[in-house]
Amino acid sequence: MPSTKRAEELAHVLQEDIERSGWPVGEVLGSETELVGRYDVSRSILREAVRILEHHGAVRTKRGPHGGLIVAAPDGVALVRSARIVLEYERVSVDNLLEARELVESATARLAARRRSDEDIVKLEAALAAETEGGDAVVSFATLHDEIANATQNRVLALFANVVDSLVPTHVSDESRRGANMADISREANRAHQRIVEAIVAGDDALAERRMLRHLRASRAVLR
Ligand SMILES: [Zn+2]
């Protein structure tokens, strides 16, 4: 069997073992020497398998006396990376991405209005407050969209929304970010976000959806 195939198989076995033990984030699975013995593989196959799992965010390695292979919490970063490569290869248009984002995010706004918990409301309001506190405005604008997606209580939808959102520049293109109108754009986006959150907190799903759609369509103009 070619070594790449053996490494993929070992990665799969390791992942199944992590799943079976309840995905204990932070737990040390063993040192390289221990794992080579436990799985009866060569050092190079183990290292290749570890690279695969690291790429997916399932494990990390730590050096030192208490180090070794450690269980990690995958966070979807690898998914965004893969999606970006596929879409760039296929030369997907910005219009396609924006259309997909509008469909996904109007659905998240609608569901968030129906399902948001008290804890979600606290997080949504914290994200809104962070936007007006300055600092890295672009990052904090994306946070609100993430919190809305989380408030749907649907992890699959939240993950898709996160991928789509990460593929399109949020709210501003690189050109306008450098431009003098950044303050206007930020104020506008924050106002739109406030109105979306109001509708979500009020539990008005149709209104939340409409406001999200209007917000995303308005932001199309600054993305060109
Ligand atoms: Zn926004």
The biggest beta sheet is recorded as: 3 strands, antiparallel
Query: Which quaternary structure do these chains form?
Result: single chain
Identify the bound ligands.
zinc ion
For the record, give the distance between the C-alpha atoms at the N and C termini, rounded to a whole number: 51 Å
Strand order within the widest sheet? 1-3-2
Low-confidence stretches: none
Helix/strand/pairing class, anyone? mainly alpha
Q: How many E-type strands? A: 3
- The string of secondary-structure elements, in order, is HEHHEEHHHHHHHH
| Radius of gyration using CA atoms only | 21 Å
Q: Identify the overall geometry.
A: elongated
List keywords for this structure.
binds zinc ion; 224 residues; single chain; mainly alpha
What does this structure look like?
The protein has 224 residues and is mainly α. 72% of the residues lie in helices and 5% in strands. The protein has eleven helices and three strands. It has a three-stranded antiparallel β-sheet with strand order 1-3-2. The termini are far apart. The mean pLDDT is 89. Residues 141, 145, 171, 189, 193, 215 line the site of zinc ion (ZN). Zinc ion binds at residues 141, 145, 171, 189, 193, 215.
